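re: ur question from the group chat, yeah i did fold both. here u go
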Amino acid sequence: MISAITGELRRVEEDRVHIQLGPLLCELLVPAMDLLLLQAGVGQEITFHTVFYLEGDSSGGNIEPRLVGFLRPEDKAFFQLFITVKGIGPKKALRALALPVGEIAQAIESKDARFLVELPQIGKRMAELIVAELAGKVAGFASPIVDGKPTVGGRMRVEEDAIATLMALGERRIDAEHLLDRAKQNNATLKTTDAMVREMLRLRTARG
């Protein structure tokens, strides 16, 4: 079983990335929420936490192996729960995961079907089914809400996601946190994970 891979991020496409592993170029499907962050990491060495599955109809002999990659191990674990819901296959799940897992899990635990309907590929009936099947099972993934905004370990969720992205690019957590603090000092207007990651990468390049 391939549980994680590390290699150079060569290309980012609409729903997948290409990673150079020595002489091999591997294709990984990725969740929608990570695409902007990954575009900022092209050319960098990056670690993906992976899930392997087979796609196609075995009766017709048309089976293709697929590898799904996540920047954070908790996102991988949530995905594995998410696809247990009837009617949510791996590709549908990846498109639906357009927002941070912590926010989606919080909506499920709060039984907020209206929030879930806003996700790609999720209609009203599917949202209600997700709540019925997963409420009570995803509390460990949910982001606590402080002043109306999701947080993780005292930091805003967008900040924690930025730290996790730099860690996937090989930074130690303490160094990623230092880069984030410097990025915020340099530019107090940074509000999104993508903007934070871009500034952190700029600072890291200048540091090198």
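okk and heres the other one u asked abt
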Amino acid sequence: MIIDFFKRVMGNPLADLGNLEGDYRVSNLRGDIKQSLLYIAIISFSVLAMLGADAMVFRNHPGLFKVMVFCRVVYVLINFLFGVVLYKTDKVRNFDRLIFCWIFFTVLALVLFNFTRPANYLTTSFDIIVPFAIYILSPLRTPYTVALAIGFSAGTIYVDHFFKFGVDPVVLSVATAAQFIVHVLGWSSAVQLQSYRRKSYQAFIDEKDAKEMVAYLANIDPLTKSLTRRQFMSLAESEFRRFTRYRRPLSLLVLDADRFKQVNDTYGHHAGDLVLRSLSLVAMEQKRAQDTFGRLGGE
């Protein structure tokens, strides 16, 4: 119901790959893993960089500063373990589980870090960036991405309203409204991005199928559905070189339709085409899988 609503509003629905969805995820798995490792490295660096802010906030409480240093280092080490396991992953299902656990762990850690800030201090800009980043960077299916982004915002709003004191009500209202706005923007951007990626993959598959069809038509005689002369001679040359190298038995059979010109002259070229097609069908039904059958020309 929600997806249908956004389809109507945006006019650019999520691309439905159908049976190709699994192939799409598998083909993009290594790329998704590399991107996820990059995101883990960036968030880890950002968390460590926040130690500078901690030093100023807890300059009068060295004990609390040491606790924050410990918590941030532990978070980065856990991220490193996630990265190691993620790098060795070769299945989409395991990848999705790992990414979901890592994003959930990161969301929980960031919400808990928010408790350590002064009671009259709001990290509004940071709180807006996180859910938007989840929407844009998450390779998970849309319901899981939305749940994680909303979970972070719900935790942030809860902390701001029940554990922050002395904050201007107007500022608090604006911060809360910004959370709702960022979800609309994040969802819209995620839909556009995921649709673009899937449509690009669909276009790639269509182009690949078209090239294979062109190659097939170039090598198959349209009338008899056997190999064309060029393709047959190319394969025959390869088989002859193999025969010369390994001295294995090689057989060549040439068929010719007797009085074929008389059939064309008496019944017309359409009847001649039916004869050739029937002859080819009989030959292909009788040949073995490893045999090569082609049309050299005429009958």
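fwiw on the second one: The chain is about 75% helix and 0% strand. The chain has two domains: 2-211, 230-286. idk if thats what u expected
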